[in-house]
From TrEMBL:
Domain Prephenate/arogenate dehydrogenase: 18-295
NCBIfam families with a match to the protein in the record: PRK06545.2-3, PRK06545.2-4
PANTHER family associated with the record: PREPHENATE DEHYDROGENASE, PREPHENATE DEHYDROGENASE [NADP(+)]
Enzymatic class: oxidoreductase
Upper taxonomic lineage: Bacteria, Bacillati, Actinomycetota, Actinomycetes, Micrococcales
Keyword terms, alphabetized: Amino-acid biosynthesis, Aromatic amino acid biosynthesis, Oxidoreductase
The protein's name: Prephenate dehydrogenase
PROSITE patterns: PDH_ADH
Length: 374
């Protein structure tokens, strides 16, 4: 084996061995199946819907179960309202397997199973922070979890070998394992996932009643803030209901903030009104700065806005010439207004690289629309 081939084989070697059983062949379950099969892991799929199961198998997410299958790991990837029931069934059906789930709420199923008196020694709740606006096996992707956090909720009864198995699952699909308690997890996702969904949906709801003239003015700001509003209502009713208390806490605090800004804008010339609005915007700046970016770093980048003609190959040429200039693209956002014959590429670069990138691209004929930090 050549040195290159050996390195490639080392890179793709799976940590998991044996059979992994995935119950639920929707977006998350099928995506896990695709990612594990890409590493040579034997994946068995099960789903309450025969058509969903056949579709996931046809797409290559795993195989149909057989009577003699003995999985070492069971992954429960079903809707939140049946997660506890399926976990219980899988623990009983596979007494030698470790069982985990990928539901976005961790405390409710854990408490429900304890209330039923189920032995949870072999159960470890987990949650990959990944997803798409579209669901189902047809939307599954093997790269869905790459670089994403995967929360693992251990407790005092968790065996080290069982914990290692669930962490190996996260690592094999390209995710980054992170240990939290169920309470810590649910409070965190209320702020970073569940409330953003509510806010995006409420804002997008205003668009449903807007006139066509207003919608023609929609730019990247409203598209960014409403992107996740396309999510499935049936799923989110379950998620929000299961994590209601922490979600309500954040919504109440947010409602107070909105009320303060609204009151200031009712009389914008009143003493302190402008300061109240400015403080709200500045506080938002501080929050955004705390969000981890590339490689989990809280680094700030400069943003260069380049006008790109709407013709084939232009974006590739832009990246190629940035590479020739020695500029690393830290992030990219594209905006293309309806009817325009060009797009705007907002390119995030290290502050030290901004001047060289600007001058170099202009010398090569690119039109610079400005940078967003001016």
């Amino acid at each position: 084996m050549s040195e290159t081939a050996g390195a490639r084989a080392t890179q793709v070697a799976a940590r998991l061995s044996g059979t992994v059983r995935i119950v639920g062949a929707g977006l998350l379950g099928s995506s896990i199946g695709h990612a594990l099969r890409a590493k040579g892991v034997d994946v068995v799929l099960a789903d309450a819907s025969p058509s969903q199961l056949r579709l996931a198998i046809d797409y290559g997410a795993g195989r149909a179960e057989q009577a003699d299958d003995q999985p070492a790991l069971v992954v429960v990837a079903v809707p939140p309202d049946v997660t506890a029931d399926v976990i219980q069934a899988e623990l009983l059906a596979h007494p030698d397997a470790v069982v985990t789930d990928v539901a976005s709420v961790k405390l409710q199923p854990f408490d429900e199973l304890r209330r039923r008196g189920i032995d949870l020694t072999r159960y470890i709740g987990s949650h990959p922070l990944a997803g798409r606006e579209r669901g189902g096996a047809i939307s599954a992707r093997a790269d869905l979890f790459i670089g994403r956090p995967w929360v693992v909720c251990r407790d005092g009864e968790t065996r080290a070998s069982d914990l290692a198995l669930v962490e190996a699952l996260a690592l094999d699909v390209g995710a980054m394992p992170l240990e939290m308690t169920p309470q810590e997890h649910d409070r965190a996702v209320a702020l970073t996932s569940h409330v953003p969904q509510v806010v995006a949906s409420l804002l997008a709801g205003r668009l449903a009643e807007a006139d066509e003239g207003s919608l023609r003015l929609a730019g990247q700001g409203v598209r960014d803030t409403t992107r996740i509003a396309a999510s499935a209502p049936e799923l989110w009713v379950q998620i929000l209901g299961a994590n209601a208390e922490p979600v309500v806490d954040v919504l109440d605090a947010l409602a107070d903030d909105l009320r303060d800004v609204a009151e200031a804008l009712r009389t914008p010339d009143a003493p302190g009104a402008r300061r109240a609005v400015a403080d709200a915007i500045r506080h938002g700046n501080e929050g955004v700065e705390r969000l981890p970016g590339k490689h989990g770093q809280n680094r700030r980048f400069e943003t260069l806005v380049v006008m790109v003609d709407d013709t084939p190959g232009q974006l590739g040429r832009l990246f190629g010439e940035l590479g020739e200039l020695g500029v690393n693209v830290e992030d990219l956002r594209l905006e293309h207004s309806p009817g325009a014959q060009f797009g705007l590429a907002e390119i995030s670069v290290a502050p030290a690289a901004l001047r060289g990138a600007t001058d170099g691209l202009q010398e090569r004929g690119w039109r610079i629309a400005g940078n967003t930090n001016d």
